[in-house]
Amino acid sequence: MVSAVLGTEEQYQQPGELEPVQRKSTAAIVADQLRAAIMYGSLPPGSQLGEAELAARLGVSRGPLREAMQRLVAEGLLRSEPHRGLFVMDLHTEDVADIYVARLAVERAACEQIVRHHRVEAVAELTAAQSRMVAAAGKGDAIELADADQEFHETLVRVSGSSRLQRMAQTLLVEKRMCLTALQDKYHADVQALVDEHKGLVDAIESGDEALLLSRLEAHMNDALERLNGSMAE
């Protein structure tokens, strides 16, 4: 029974009560750095990871580096080849389509949870995230806009309250960003349309119209995939 696992008394956190400080392990910090390097193209698709070189660059021993790299293998961002080592995953056209199939499934589930349980929080946080997109678009900064776009979708999944959806979304959003980075010279988004689409998602959440929200989310994903496919075809 669930109650047997959780205990007979529920534990409540009182305001102002002290909690243990959560500190990331060295391996977790290294994994974060490697993930960012993959996302921003410092470690491009197909590149091999040299253990000695990376350990020297990061200033860590090989133990936590190996643990970090195995985390990224489990996430699907690195692949292990026998007798050759670890490589950053390559992304092909079929992979990009699969990323968006998975993203739609994850973010659709997140949206359902938001509309049913977390509307007020979601509207507040997503409005702030969308405002950062507007600011980046106004400056004409493509990288900052992509960062703000990423933050919007990370926030969307986070405010759903599901840690499992967050874990799944993390890798998918890194993979999506890998595509944008690799295609940065060819990918040309309609900036105003992009900003408007995200505003439309917030408006649908605020209205509480689940069907409208899911319809707009699907259209947003399809538009993004179509733009990426067009850039890859070039």
UniProtKB/TrEMBL annotation:
Keyword Transcription attributed: yes
InterPro entries: GntR_C, TF_FadR/GntR_C, Tscrpt_reg_HTH_GntR, WH-like_DNA-bd_sf, WH_DNA-bd_sf
Superkingdom classification of source: Bacteria
Domain HTH gntR-type residues, every copy: 24-91
Assigned keywords, A-Z: DNA-binding, Transcription, Transcription regulation
GO molecular function, one term: DNA binding
Name the record gives this protein: GntR family transcriptional regulator
Organism annotation: Saccharopolyspora karakumensis
Lineage: Bacteria, Bacillati, Actinomycetota, Actinomycetes, Pseudonocardiales
